[in-house]
């Protein structure tokens, strides 16, 4: 799964506009390198994993033909039928993946795990209901929806299910590079003795993996154009070899595609055949990427690429291997059934080189996809905040997370060195793959009822048909727990614990903030001066609250002799949609009467949105407040009213139209005056010096004097400087809490909080402008 969003090449919302056939075919070609790198390299290790120990290749060919039949029908039913024709339709405004399904369910059934959700969020343009009225829902569907909304335990189970799927994708990010690169390098064993090969294979695989992870910091935009040609060359290579083997060794191998050979296979091999399914299921490794990378392509382009290129190439490759093996029953004792043994000896070395490149491309895709899903989890409050680096100035989807990258590399090397064979790596990778598919099947059954408003019986049929197939493969993988399958389970438990502890601690902290927020009557009793000296400048108070006055503010007012002339309560929140349009970015309102100069600003981001740099964000923030002041009229106050604090919030875009306020940037020789709009890029000097920004309020008869005065105060305060005020929280469990809660909060959450990024990740405020005040939270 790779994150690529090019300028004019890969549209952000491909489902929303009609594309020409030229564009569709271009996207289909590009998707080969981004989506199908992992899936296309599976012929390297499927037969080798299937025949590892459980079954043996006999003269009757029943085993090899049975495996081929299983591979054919597995590829046909899972990626082709399930994903291409059904799952790809369950997009979240063009986005796909486990969290896209969960986000879709959150909006349709109000089971959102985010603590600071608002009714105003439901008015976002991407917060759509797929154009289907709720009265189309069946009686059983309505009762299912109400049951989910009533019972918190079911909502938690739904969240845990999504987290398990996500953690298995992360586990796949560890296992896929290991097995792909190791299997590609294993071709060396046909060119050297067993003793030599033992000392070459593992070091070579580790060297390639270290090189691969070390390159992540530089991004892939410089060599990304090579991905599709590499995978295309690999697919043409394996399909050509497959056609050659079919006609040269066994033209009648096509008969093995009959389901009857699956019956004969299981009848002869029995338990051994069932256990070998754990290796056979590796033929669909990477299928989930078709759905996960949907946001970067269109449904049609992904369907065309798989149906007309990837699917037939893989089938020909597997048929060719089976045709060769059906005529070669005696293999050397030091080599087991594998991919390279069926490759003609004259072209074995070129194929080895192409295979290594294809394995690297497939591994790159899953690594970048892991970065992407970590970012989504963090945005939805299910993973500690981490440093996110955008590696390309043009392709905004390409990100790099240092902590995750080096963690993946160490785990990947540990798996490679520890296992040293494709058998145990295959067992581990297979369990991760099939678990993700099971989670997708479960979530899809809910989407069919709650989002598509189809019959419950259709959902039951879906989960019964595909779930039974996946359960069969899952049982075959799970039985090999001690032979490698424990790795994805261990990784999933660790990452799930981290995610759930962080989510639980964040939720409890927010509940404490809500319970301890200050009454508006307290603010009114202080008067416009707040009982202290108001000095020039803007105080930016970070809070998770979307309404009310945070307790930290009363702490400041009662302990500081002076405070800023303008105070902004800033909440940077995520909403369960992939993207929030710039026109709907900010919700702005007042806290208290006008003369208090207290404002609330809520910046909303989707789980795939990119947070802006500090200069541009500060400019948009001040402009949104100025636009709110300028256009504040009863008819402009929309979306939501907080009944407790009587706060009216107005939607303000980052590119507000024709704002009466202008920004003048003093940047040296190239000083210029620009409109207050984020559509104009801020040009930064190489030394990243912060420009001095002056705001100009032009005289206009359309703006009354009271509004002009308030705007001038805002601009004067901005020119005087902005301070970022942050409450440094120490969360502790209440006295009398259970032992488990004390462990989770006092040890787990506290450790994660101290080792994660602070909440000012979107604002690179200078250290001198940041004020941190400690507070103890008893949750």
| Helix content bin | 40-55%
Q: What do the pLDDT scores average to?
A: 79
| Tally of DSSP β-strands | 13
Describe the global form. elongated
**SS strand fraction:** 5-15%
Low-pLDDT runs of 5+ residues are 1-17, 129-134, 634-646, 656-660, 664-693, 760-764
Numbering strands along the chain, what is their spatial order in the largest sheet? Answer: 7-8-5-6-4-3-12-13
Main location: membrane
Family: Belongs to the HAK/KUP transporter (TC 2.A.72.3) family.
Pfam families: K_trans, K_trans_C
Organism: Hibiscus sabdariffa (roselle)
Account of the 3D structure:
It is elongated and about 95 Å long. A hairpin with an 8-residue loop joins strand 1 (389-390) and strand 2. Mean pLDDT is 79; it is low at 1-17, 129-134, 634-646, 656-660, 664-693 and 760-764. It contains 23 helices and 13 strands. The chain has an 8-stranded mixed beta sheet. Strands 10-9-11 form a 3-stranded antiparallel beta sheet. Strands 1-2 form a two-stranded antiparallel ribbon. The longest helix has 34 residues, at 152-185. It has helices at 21-34, 37-40, 46-50, 62-85, 98-109, 139-150, 152-185, 194-214, 227-249, 260-269, 271-280, 288-292, 299-325, 348-379, 402-419, 422-450, 456-478, 486-515, 520-526, 551-559, 614-630, 705-720, 739-754; strands at residues 389-390, 399-400, 533-542, 562-574, 586-590, 598-605, 640-642, 647-652, 662-666, 672-675, 692-696, 722-732, 770-778. The chain is an alpha/beta fold.
